């Protein structure tokens, strides 16, 4: 958390400010700026520039400014939220603190008198001028079977780890990856390169459908398998036992019966 669904909600909130001009930009925490060690003065170029558009690639929110084409990239890590005038489209993130402390505001931008803040308790997010989006893989919300096939081909690491690797597929986090594999009936530990063509097709279409469904419901935590992430839970698709282990470095739940 936040995954692409939450970052898309941040983007929609920020997009309302298009047309407004940057009056001030304050990076309260220099460690939040990327690349590491960048002089904070580079961000001064944004003052006086108008917000012209917003976009998103995976979990990276992009704000486009002015006629010179400045782009600000915002990343939200594990606990980052975007607030506008003190209000966020997401009141509280799953697995993050319910506290809401302005001391966690790492960057604050005044756009046309509206105050945009990145509030990030654990400070794993970042802000960057003109980020290199080529480091990011294919956008998960629109992934095709062909693209997923290229990503998985000959890869020996677990499919769950591949889904989470932002350099390969951008946007999925732990909850979306688990829900998608559960819906697709694929064991998260399977080597990605061992998936059949039919399984790749199913996984690609299930990824897109899962993002659409959970976006409509309001978040990455609204999947049908979310309530099954506890010991003793029974799969609602097949009544099998839910199993838990660390896969791809992350806490992973799956159904031992229908995911194979
Ligand atoms: Zn099952």
Shape: elongated
Q: What does the radius of gyration come to?
A: 19 Å
Query: What is the strand tally?
Result: 13
Order of the strands making up the biggest sheet: 2-9-5-4-3
CATH class of the largest domain: Alpha Beta
Q: Mean pLDDT, rounded to whole units?
A: 96
Residue share in β-strands = 25-35%
Bound molecules: zinc ion
Uncertain runs are: none
How far the N terminus sits from the C terminus, by CA atoms, comes to 26 Å
* CATH topology annotation of the largest domain: N-terminal domain of MutM-like DNA repair proteins
CATH superfamily of the largest domain: MutM-like, N-terminal
What does it look like?
The protein is of the alpha+beta class and 260 residues long. It has two domains: 4-133, N-terminal domain of MutM-like DNA repair proteins; 137-255, Helicase, Ruva Protein, domain 3, CATH 1.10.8. The protein is built from five helices and 13 strands. The strands form four sheets. It has a five-stranded mixed β-sheet. A hairpin with a 2-residue loop joins strand 7 and strand 8. Helix 2 packs across helix 5 and helix 4 (174-184) packs across helix 5 (197-217). It is elongated, with a radius of gyration of 19 Å. The mean pLDDT is 96. Bound molecules: zinc ion. The site of zinc ion has 7 residues, from loops.
Report a brief summary of the structure.
The chain is an alpha+beta fold and 260 residues long. 22% of the residues lie in helices and 25% in strands.
């Amino acid at each position: 958390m936040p995954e692409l669904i939450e970052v898309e909600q941040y983007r929609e909130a920020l997009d309302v400010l298009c047309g407004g001009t940057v009056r001030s930009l304050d990076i309260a925490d220099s460690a939040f700026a990327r690349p590491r060690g960048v002089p904070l003065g580079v961000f001064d170029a944004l003052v006086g520039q108008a917000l012209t558009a917003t976009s998103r690639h995976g979990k990276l929110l992009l704000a486009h400014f002015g006629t010179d084409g400045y782009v600000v990239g915002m990343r939200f890590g594990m606990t980052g939220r975007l607030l506008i005038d003190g209000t966020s489209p997401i009141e509280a993130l799953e697995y993050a603190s319910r506290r809401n402390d302005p001391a966690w505001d790492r960057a604050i931008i005044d756009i046309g008198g509206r105050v945009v803040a990145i509030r990030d308790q654990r400070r794993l997010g970042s802000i960057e001028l003109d980020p290199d989006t080529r480091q990011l893989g294919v956008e998960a919300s629109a992934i095709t079977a062909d693209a997923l096939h290229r990503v998985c081909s000959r890869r020996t690491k677990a499919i769950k780890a591949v889904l989470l690797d932002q350099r390969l597929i951008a946007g999925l986090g732990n909850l979306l990856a688990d829900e998608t594999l559960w819906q697709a009936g694929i064991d998260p530990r399977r080597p990605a390169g061992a998936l059949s063509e039919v399984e790749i097709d199913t996984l690609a279409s299930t990824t897109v459908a899962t993002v659409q469904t959970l976006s409509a419901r309001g978040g990455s935590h609204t999947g049908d398998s979310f309530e099954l992430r506890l010991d003793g839970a029974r799969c609602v698709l097949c009544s099998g036992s839910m199993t838990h282990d660390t896969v791809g470095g992350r806490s992973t739940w799956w159904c031992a019966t229908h995911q194979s």
